[in-house]
Amino acid sequence: MAASPDTPETTDAIAADRALVAAVLDGAPGAFERLVREYQGLCWHVIDRMVRHPDDTRELCQEAFLRVHQALHQYRGESALKSWIAQVAWSVARRHLEKKRIPIAQSPAGNEGPSLAETVGDGFDLEAAVADDEAVGLLHAAIGRLPPLQRTLLTLYHLEDMPIGEISRVTGLADGTIKSHLFRSRKRLRELLEPSLGVFAA
After folding, report:
1. CA 91, 97, 98 angle in degrees (round to 5)?
2. Are 189 and 200 in contact (CB under 8 A)?
3. 0.90 exceeded by pTM
4. Residues 6+ apart with CB under 8 A from 85
5. Do 108 and 43 form a contact (C-beta atoms < 8 A)?
6. DSSP helix/strand/coil, 160
7. Cβ atoms of residues 147 and 51 within 8 Å
8. CB contact at 8 A, 156 and 167
9. pLDDT tens for each residue of 39-61
10. Whether 153 contacts 185, CB under 8 Å
11. Dist. CA 1–CA 121, nearest whole Å
12. Burial class (CB within 10 angstroms; exposed 0-12, middle 13-18, buried 19+) of 21
């Protein structure tokens, strides 16, 4: 899981983020291109998990980086640039789905069980739960069958290594809501993967 906000590594990373942003704002040659190269994978992950259409994803990623460029002066360096850019990508993708009247989440059904905080924040490694390339492919196909919000939260938490608090800043969702969605997502993945992979780790 990602380093906590108080660690020296995180402090150094945010200092590097501030330096990169300053270079972009100063018009340093190649600075914005370096920012795009560094974060284009993150931007693609967030938007593609939401919209699931490559052509739309490409167009929306371009829109997201245009917005990043236009609003970069608003970045204050209080959190990781990764979170700030993910928030822009999230906003662009969510607005796209709203325009198409596509719901981003399913309503909870009944009691999902106690101690959601314990079941989510346990260091569970999603991809380590499956043993080979074929199984990883099945895992990602199963993630693709989840609602947009749950696909994206799983990606941010398990594949981008974002802690719950950082995901909350990206999405504007409460910590408990994120944990609840992650819990239901993993439960649904078990249901989808058990027929082909056998028992799927909780």
Report:
1. 85
2. yes
3. no
4. 39, 42, 43, 64, 68
5. no
6. coil
7. no
8. yes
9. 999 999 999 999 989 999 999 99
10. yes
11. 10
12. buried
